Amino acid sequence: MLCWVNPRIFYARITEGSILPHEIKMSISGLLYLLYIQYFCMTVAKKLPQDVNPQGVFACNELDLSEVQVYGFDYDYTLAHYKPTLEHLLYNLGRDILLEKYKYPAEILKLEYKPNFAVRGLHYDIEKGLLLKLDSFLQIQFGAVYRGLTPVSTEEVLKIYKNRIIPIAYVEGDTRAHKANRAKMVHLADLFSVPEMGLLCNVAEYFIRNHIDYHPEILFLDVKNSVQSCHPIMHKIVAQNVEEYIRPNPELKKYFQMLQHCNKKLFLVTNSPYHFVNAGMEMLVGLDWRDFFDVVIVNANKPKFFTEVSRPIRVFDKNANTHIWEKVTSLEKGIIYYEGTVKQLQDLTGWSGHQVLYFGDHPYTDLADVTLEHGWRTGAIINELTHEINTLNTQSFKENANWLQMLTQLIEDHQDYKDSEAVEVLGQWMAERDYLRNEIKAVFNAQFGSVFRTYHNPTYFSRRLFRFADIYTSNISNLLNYSTTHTFYPRRGVMPHEYGSYFV
User: Fold this and answer.
1) Cα 238 vs. chain centroid, distance in angstroms?
2) 3-class DSSP state for residue 55?
3) Structure pTM?
4) φ, ψ at 354 (rounded to 5°)
5) Dihedral through CA 391, CA 394, CA 398, CA 399, nearest 10?
6) For the chain, where do the domains classified as CATH 3.40.50.1000 start and end?
7) What does the pLDDT look like over 170-217, one tens digit per residue?
8) How far apart are CA 473 and CA 477, in angstroms?
9) Could you list the active site residues?
10) What homologous superfamily is domain 57-81+249-385 in, according to CATH?
11) Of 73, 157, 158, 199, which has the fewest CB atoms closer than 10 Å, so is most exposed?
């Protein structure tokens, strides 16, 4: 039987005549090899897909902008996009607090941040101390499970969880009255969590390598509290040197001007403090940035801003850096507001329902409640989309993805052959399929792959994103390419029973 070779080499050898057709045994294995080459030739001849526009706006649900009269925005990672220097800053500040407040070993000061280790959308198992990636069916993606910085084998993962599918109550908690159990996993749905996970995994790796016993949940809580408590320090540092931490975006002001010219109302609701937002917005838009907004609310404490009904909105005195105790009976342009609730925002402005489009970067904190409870339209700003699309557009990715699809079809169509030679060939195909899947995964991120996909399913993060966002894009200014009367239409997706139909 022919030795196993790379299909491109095998195809070239047949083409140049160094392998002649009569040298291929017409046994079942020989026929399978010919099929293999036929499928590969079909892949080579198949036209590669067109490039995706990295500045595109993508629809999960039909959205007619002519119905939208009010545009709302989060600030962090929505209007302000941060440079990698911010991740390093948060990591270093959190590490310092671990040393000073929690008295962690002095040697962790030597642990440097690894910026390309973790991605957004992962889960951390606070009981077992594992960082892992789940798909939309709560299945573990094998090869994307880490303890510290060390990958955990598939065999060990199955030994720990007894299954590749995690029960929903373990992932999300059980909120039924008679089973009020909290989740054992934490979903890392925002970009601020990436340096936090980098610090946690670095420290865990240090403990493991130095044979120091630790409790995974205690380590998680210490790191979480350290990073969160350093945010006020981070706010001051960034506000004093915005150019070092915030990416410039000259198109942002143009977008606000376009909305204002079309008589749209604008508001800002952010969890960040005023002095931090003001410094960033002055750099991004200019000293007159407040003139674009009809309402500005800082320290909103989302998601409570969207879920509570009794917390009063207050006026913030930006000069005295404090809030005023008087009752707010109207919302005025030029005034900075503090805390409050979405109910008060709607009651005092009359803005409600599908006339409001709110943009944020966090599927839960920013988008879930406003779309499920209040009927707002929603847009997600996903910074990683630029990297993901640029990767999808490469020639090598398109070729590998095409061949993976054809090879999977080949395996599916011929998997029931039980001849010993056929089983051997099918095993070789499966091995190549696994190799291709890992190649495709690694081009996004060597450890965890794409933010949006596991090997073939959408990720847990994707499912939430597609459920709560009507549209998503990489940058708010991408909407400059569309009029304020544009309608975004979702593409007709292929359901499993429609595959091969001319209707899709």
Assistant:
1) 24
2) coil
3) 0.89
4) -70, -5
5) -130
6) 57-81+249-385
7) 999 876 545 556 789 999 999 999 999 999 999 999 999 999 999 999
8) 9
9) 74, 76
10) HAD superfamily/HAD-like (3.40.50.1000)
11) 158
